[in-house]
Amino acid sequence: MPEDRQTRLKRLRMRSMRRGIKEMDIILSRYADARLESLTPEQLDVYDRLLSENDQDLYQWVTGQAPAPDPFASLIAGIAQDSDASR
Predict the structure, then answer these.
(1) What is the pTM of this model?
(2) In this model, does residue 9 exceed pLDDT 80?
(3) Which of 15, 16, 41, 45 is most open to solvent, judged by the fewest CB atoms within 10 Å of its CB?
């Protein structure tokens, strides 16, 4: 049975908070709180896949130390922008 939207949002928020490194916990949980509700199902699919990536890679992409792969580039740009605005 497919996951309903609210269950999916809760799961993605939890995965955003429970990362491997504290910096990504903070960055992704803030992004999830601010943006998940407004994402389309397709954008949620990309975010879900992003959460399967390695935290060290994610941190480098968000901080601009390394370019994000094409499937995630737009999403990472939004996460980085939100992260910069919260500092």
Answers:
(1) 0.90
(2) yes
(3) 41
